[in-house]
Design goal:
- By secondary structure, the protein is mainly β.
- The protein folds into three domains: about 25-110, Immunoglobulin-like; about 125-235, TonB-dependent receptor, plug domain (Ferric Hydroxamate Uptake Protein, Chain A, domain 1, Beta Complex), CATH 2.170.130; about 240-275, no CATH class.
- It is about 10% helix and about 45% strand.
- It has four helices and 19 strands.
- It has helices at about 5-20, 150-155, 190-195, 210-215; strands spanning about 25-35, 45-50, 55-60, 65-70, 75-80, 90-95, 100-110, 125-130, 135, 160, 165-170, 170-175, 175-180, 180-185, 200-210, 225-230, 240-250, 255-265, 265-275.
- The strands form five sheets. Strands 8-9-15-16-13-14 form a six-stranded mixed β-sheet.
- Strand 2 (about 45-50) and strand 3 (about 55-60) form a beta hairpin.
- It starts with a helix and ends in a 9-residue tail after the last strand.
- Mean pLDDT is about 80; it is low at about 5-20.
């Protein structure tokens, strides 16, 4: 009995600590049209940290326009609600120990009207969903200086990048990666993710791509494969960009790889080089 008591006390203490550190916050609400008062289904609800505008999580409203996001840590946030054809709703909120659950009630979305000759204001919503395409703004994800596109993809919800650089989106293997809608230097997705820097990217689009056969025959065979389109920032679509990495080790071991990319509007030119004596494959086509 004397030996059992300290163990039980330790277990209770450990459980108490784990419970205290677990995310405790949640938000909910209902998204409706301002005029018609009808619910808006599949509106995008995104949560960003207030301090650095980094994306925490997102969800879609259900058929009744309702949404709920759970397991938020204590802290200051901003919620963005977006729906095609409507103005983006933005509101700051905080999760604190004595106010863990927040109910926004009815969130009334106003339609976006554009007059002839009106200046178009850029949409700052971090996520857009249109048909089968999900678009993530790169500014919602913080990466280190000199980070590559694969480092950016690791931070995007629903994406995984393994140690070899293979990419999965929503549980499916990504077969192709496009740059501004064009195949980047062959069919190997890693050529884009490992040779383009994250600071070049404006947004990442995830979509279901038609098969090559369907594109060639222009007959939809119903076959789909997960693909990614990398939209470059406007100022990065013209000029030369590249990087060089080199390393040496014992026993005269060495590794070198480099890339030089030239973009000029619709023109894309890339030169890749790789050399090593450690039996490491650089890339494939």
């Amino acid at each position: 009995m004397k030996k059992t008591l300290p163990i039980l006390i330790g277990l209770f203490c450990f459980t108490g600590i784990a419970t205290a550190q677990a995310p405790i916050g949640s938000i909910k609400g209902k998204i409706i049209d301002t005029v018609a008062r009808q619910p808006l289904s599949e509106a995008t609800v995104a949560i960003l940290r207030k301090k650095d505008s980094s994306l925490v999580t997102y969800t879609l409203s259900n058929k009744l326009g309702q949404f709920e996001i759970k397991y938020l840590d204590t802290g200051d946030y901003r919620v963005f609600v977006s729906f095609q054809g409507y103005q983006t709703f933005k509101k700051a909120f905080a999760i604190i120990p004595n106010k863990r659950s927040i109910d926004f009630g009815d969130i009334r979305m106003a339609k976006e009207y554009k007059l002839l000759g009106e200046v178009v204001v850029s949409d700052d919503a971090p996520i857009k969903i249109k048909n089968d395409t999900i678009e993530f703004k790169s500014q919602a994800f913080r990466t280190k200086p000199n980070a590559m596109v694969e480092d950016l993809l690791k931070k995007v919800p629903g994406m995984q990048v393994d140690k070899d650089g293979a990419v999965k989106a929503q549980g499916e293997q990504v077969q192709k990666i496009y740059v501004d809608g064009k195949e980047f230097f062959g069919t190997d997705p890693k050529l884009a993710t490992k040779n383009l820097t994250a600071d070049m990217v404006e947004s990442v689009q995830v979509f279901d791509d038609m098969s090559d056969q369907a594109k060639f025959t222009k007959i939809d065979d119903g076959s789909r494969q997960k693909a990614i389109n990398i939209k470059l920032k406007k100022e990065k679509r013209k000029g030369y960009f590249g990087r060089i990495l080199a390393g040496v080790g014992s026993d005269d071991r060495y590794e070198f790889n480099g890339s030089l990319n030239h973009f000029n509007g619709d023109q894309q030119l890339s030169v890749l080089a790789n050399a090593n004596d450690i039996n490491k494959q650089g890339f494939s086509f």
